[in-house]
Amino acid sequence: MSFLYPIFVASLLIFVGYIANYLFHTKKLPESILLIIVGILLGPLLSIINVESITKIAPLFSAIAVAIILFEGGLDLDLFQTIKAIPYATFLAIINTSLSILFTTIILKFFLNWDWIYGILLGSILSGISGPVVISILSGIEVDEKTKTTLSVESSVTDAFTILLSLTIINFLAFGNVDIHSAAKNIASAYSVGTLFGLVFGIIWITLLKRLKGKFRYMLTLAFLFMIYVISEELGGSGAITALIFGLVLGNSEEVAKMLRLGKGFELDNTLKIFHEEVTFFIRTFFFIYLGIIFDLKLLSIKFAVISLIISLLLVAARYITSEIISNIAKIDKKVTSIMIARGLGAAVVATIPFYYGLKNALSILGFTTAIIILTNLINALLIMIVEKGKIEENNMQKKNLNF
Predict the structure, then answer these.
(1) pLDDT average, residue stretch 163-172
(2) Three-class DSSP labels, 280-313
(3) Distance CA 128, CA 134 (A)
(4) Is 0.85 topped by the overall pTM?
(5) How far is 68 from 44, CA to CA, in rounded Å?
(6) pLDDT digits (tens, 9 = 90+) for 330-362
(7) Mean pLDDT, range 388-402, rounded to an integer
(8) pLDDT for position 321
(9) How far is CA 180 from CA 168, 177, 183, 236, 340, in A?
(10) Three-state SS for 388?
(11) 378 and 34 in contact (C-beta within 8 Å)?
């Protein structure tokens, strides 16, 4: 076999990623499902790609994916709308996360007699809704601006919170020190340090960008993102939060410059955003395929399928309860809020990390996460069709009433 063969396979996979992305935006078919299935074909089914060789890059690939996902999430947020939406979005995220962890932990304890901490870990991994899916759904349906902003902010908050909470639990499990008080302090500290680093380095970078002329500004921005991600992690902060806030500052550089009286000419070049979308597409495509490649087919059983389906349906129930509580407080669209249940890349990234540390139940955590990503995306697609059909019927009824 030619040493160039992997390049040929990688090229084909980019085309597969494009097709999956096209179907996602035009037909609302979840791209994660197609990519995971392709990964399962390449790895465990056909053994075209060796699983052991690819798992060696898991930690590095996971860190890169986390930084890029959350940086993009920050770039797409409007600063002032985000500030207004943060209280409601955070409340929404906390309720949904708590219920997701509670339901998942109880099911795993009841059916598999897992230790509570491993149930909490899987619940944490599965607690965050998928930002890209949420944003895509909101762009394709009729919804008021307040609901759209609140849900967009919530998806970014839960992405960061899911990653941070899960990583905290993984670190405690890996190094044998599980202490709830210390964990709470570490999370608060990581959030504070991560936010501070994101703000400070974001302001520094928009100032430098204004002075940088010529090419390679995006590559330098990406390099700077990875640098501050590592610095934040090494100094006790959250690299995930740093990436999110750094993206928020850059995405709103003109407004930040005005607030700090730094002068004019700080508007972010659209070329940077376009390039970053391309890089995110590449990372997303290969990560979902990678998730399929390392999926263990030995996990497949009727019991596994039933537990995965029950957890998925309970995540739907958690979302419904959350939407009932928050919609009356925040005055946002209850139906649209309740259908946002798809899990995606954030969960996929974190689910691979216990596998790297060799933690107990690591393969099961990875297997359940993969199955639930597929199931929640399928359920989400079905719920969208139901809600859109309901809205069409509602509009038709209103038109009939007006005619009378």
Answers:
(1) 81
(2) HHHHHHHHHHHHHHCCCHHHCCHHHHHHHHHHHH
(3) 11
(4) no
(5) 28
(6) 677 788 888 888 887 778 878 888 887 888 898
(7) 66
(8) 92
(9) 10, 10, 5, 17, 30
(10) helix
(11) no
